[in-house]
Protein 1
Amino acid sequence: MQGRKDIAVKQSIPKHLRYTVEDFNREFPNDDACLEHIAEERFPGGRAPCEKCGVERKHYRVSGRTAYACDHCGNHIYPLAGTIFEKTTTSLRLWFYAMYLMGSTRCGISAKQIQRETGVTYKTAWRMFREIRTLLSEDLRLDGPTEMDETYFGGRIRSHQRKERSHDNKTAIIGMVERKGRAVAKTAISAGARTLHRLAKEHILPSNTVYTDEATGYDKLASLTDDAGKNLHSSKIYVMGDIHTNTVEGFWSLIKRGIGGVYHAVSQKYLQTYLDEYTFRYNRRDQGNLLFKSILAEVSKRASKSRASVGSEIPRE
């Protein structure tokens, strides 16, 4: 269009939350840099329990291997052991890059896109994302005013069901979202009262006020919490003061638009892992591009938990 001036697009992410692809390439230029990062996260300063010596010792990298050797007896430890990278034949840097891409998008990224960008096979890309998603599950207890709602995903509507709503061939998902806070989303066999009450008891503190719609499954929810407010959707009353479920409805919109637009279809078997990805991202939406670092931190955190009992029995030198 003639006469139109170019308008600079303002960067929406604050400077301290930016982590560009140039930053990624600078910090992780090769597999060795990735291995060193994991080793430092799991064994700060190179000090780790040596099973042979029986005490904590300094360890040094073994050239050409993913092992580190004790400086006293030469016994080897493996930083990748117990992580999602254990026994992988795929480049560590490609794993890191896949995590970076997953953390840099608000809607998710498909395995097909990873295949195109990295050159790995689709099977490898899909397996990488499946393993990364195992890091993203969280066991949360929500604190503060919480909205609770159910939705249904997947399945096909049969011709005789089109005139009336039917969820027989769909997967129920129960969502709980703190206002201006965190979210939990769980797949369930049904959205009956027993399931709703069990999940509320597991993930919502009794001191919370819970806001729901008028579904009968929530009728006795007030007995589990201090208070419960209902939204009369059937009467087309969607907001009544503080009583509404707009937050959780917005959360459903993010998930449905993301899965529908990026993945198109997700099987019931793996649906929970996709929900874990979206809730992990939603709960850290204030981290900008640094979400990648949060995903990466889960690698060492989860692997270290499995060794915590062993490490606690080995005294420091």
Protein 2
Amino acid sequence: MVVIDDAPRPETKDGEVLVQCKYIALCGTNMGPYLGDGRWAELVAPSPPGWLGHENIGVIVESKADGWKVGDWVLAHPEEYNGFAEYIIAIPEGLARLPQDAPDHAALVVAQPLATVLRAMVRTGPVINQRVAVVGQGPMGLIFTQLMGRMGARQIIGIDKVGWRLPWAERFGATDLVDPSKEDAVEKVKELTDGEMVDLCIEAVGHPDALTLAAHLPRRQGRLYVFGVPHAESQEFPWFHTVCNETEIITSMGPECKEYFQNAVDMIIHGDVDLAAMVQPRMAWEDAPKAFQMYANPAEAEGSLKLTLEL
């Protein structure tokens, strides 16, 4: 991780805007390239400046796109996935309008991951009065935990081996908590559900151990939502159990989440969700190397959730 101060300022074309970023949040998808492991082990270095940043809040400083004017605060998706930069290019499809007078623009950066969860939830099917488990209580898992409650799930089991995250899971709506580092998580879920297991299990980590655990939690003919980005191109999975259990598997990942940007922003502004508290800590741009190290080692960075850099 190197911070450079002489990257060229992008030039806009017709239909594009130039955004000066004020806040940039880290995402779990940044960690594979940062650590260089899993399917990223063969990554060719160095990466392009700003590469893979995509959770940006800023102000339009140049516009060649109808309906978007200089001075507008926006949630912006960088066209080249180079969002760890002061200036980025975006197109209208990757923008959402923010209130000019918002008391805390930085808190709205959580709208980007919320949008990815909204897109995923289009495919979950009903959860009203159902039992749900969420494996992983980092920022994405916490968003799922809260929205499962909003959708009417009767039981939400928050699971994470990073112990300090579990009180956050409870704060965001988990009815039960499980720490796999301290107990047999499968047996604990069986106990919590009176032997029934869950109707839907959401895996929000991406590492093989988390996916293996998640695969053993749905009831027979229940659903497994693989949301966490896989750590490797090929990895072990309990296929025999899954096939015998007749588990329905759903997956979700893609840039189509941009379609939900404005909806996510509006939900936060109108108080339909209460996610702003997870936008912490907020660190200076100069501390980006330290921030990446913290994000890569959550067990050693208590309280670090949707870590955000301030420019």
